[in-house]
Amino acid sequence: MNKKIAPILLSFLLLSQLLVFGQSADSVAVLNKEWKIIPIKKGVTWKQGHFEKLFGSQQEINLVEIDLKKHRKNIHLAADPKELKKTSEFATEAGALVAINGGFFDMKNGGSWDYVKVDGKVVNTTKKKTDRANAILLIDKKAIEIQPDSAVNYEQSSKPNILLSGPLLIHRGQDAVLANNPFNTNRHPRSAVAITRKNKLIFLVVDGRNSQAAGMNLSELTQTLRWLGAKHAMNVDGGGSSTLYVKGATANGVVNHPSDNKQFDHEGQRPVANIIYLKE
Q: Which secondary-structure segment (H or E) carries 14?
């Protein structure tokens, strides 16, 4: 071997080892995961993965990637001011190809707990402001954005579709600061929406409350989304609400395992106030 090349090669190998060992086992598990990949249509892909040990526990993740270059104009919100419906019901009524449950809702009186506007019409105003709802999803035919609520006067915004939820997880590639409270630090089923550096929209659901799926806290959810390439990300309603819908994928279109029936199947949906969806 050339004596000049040998030190360079050795340095490269050492650097490679440092990079590998510098990664956590969890990040390697996500980055190297052999996902079950199912194309839905051009520019829309459903991925499913079961992890025997991610963050020290079993995890079940389903996500849909949507290429915004192809489908930006077909992203919508659907909401009802009073009636709560299953995500699959909202999706079927709206003609959705894929959908995810939306923001927090009033379990007693129905409707969203936080501000929602659909197609230029305010569906619900915020009933009581909480620290949890600090992220805004803004949708129009020109762009889809995830912003801190402090950066947007959403009640005066001309954007036709707005969902207030949260907490904010990632903004401009930087992890948001999460409060130290049980909602954030305990593990639950989770739903999240993210925009990647490659201009893809991700709908992601993590199952939980089951021996086959521990669920995640929001720090773990943030890390997972960052490893998946998220530049912007926000949490939406989780727990029993967490539902991911893909038309025709199952008998009711639900591809994750909603936890409200305490069974690891596709039947345990909780009625919600709104959804985010890709129109067929």
A: helix 5-22
Distance CA 171, CA 146 (A): 8
Helix or strand or coil: residue 58? strand
Cβ partners under 8 Å of residue 108, min gap 6: none
Residue in the structure block whose two tokens are 């997880």: 169
Along the chain (280 residues), what's the average pLDDT of each consecutive run of 10 residues? 52 43 80 97 98 97 98 97 98 98 96 98 96 97 96 95 98 97 98 98 98 98 98 98 98 97 96 98
Long-range CB contact pairs, 172-175, < 8 A, 24+: 172/231, 172/232, 173/197, 173/231, 175/222, 175/226
Phi, psi (degrees; rounded to nearest 5) at 265: -140, -170
Q: What is the pLDDT of residue 193?
A: 98
The three-state secondary structure class of 278 is strand
Instruction: Tell me how far apart the alpha carbons of residues 114 and 117 are, in angstroms, rounded to a whole number.
Output: 10
Q: Is residue 100 within 8 Å of 60, Cβ to Cβ?
A: no
- The count of other CB atoms within 10 Å of the CB of residue 142 is 9
Please report the pLDDT score of residue 19 as a whole number. Answer: 42
Q: List, in order, residues 6 or more apart from 53 with CB less than 8 Å away.
A: 25, 29
Measure CA of the first residue to CA of the last residue in the chain; give whole Å: 59
Residue 123 — φ and ψ, nearest 5°?
-90, -45
Q: How far is CA 118 from CA 4, 112, 139, 275, in A?
A: 65, 12, 9, 11
What local confidence, expressed as pLDDT, does residue 11 receive? 47
Show the tokens assigned to 203. 């709908």
Measured from the Cβ of residue 6, the count of other Cβ atoms closer than 10 Å reads: 10
Looking at residue 81, what DSSP letter applies?
S
**What is the Cα–Cα distance from 191 to 238, expressed in whole angstroms?**
5
- Decide: 219 and 168 in contact? Cβ < 8 Å: no
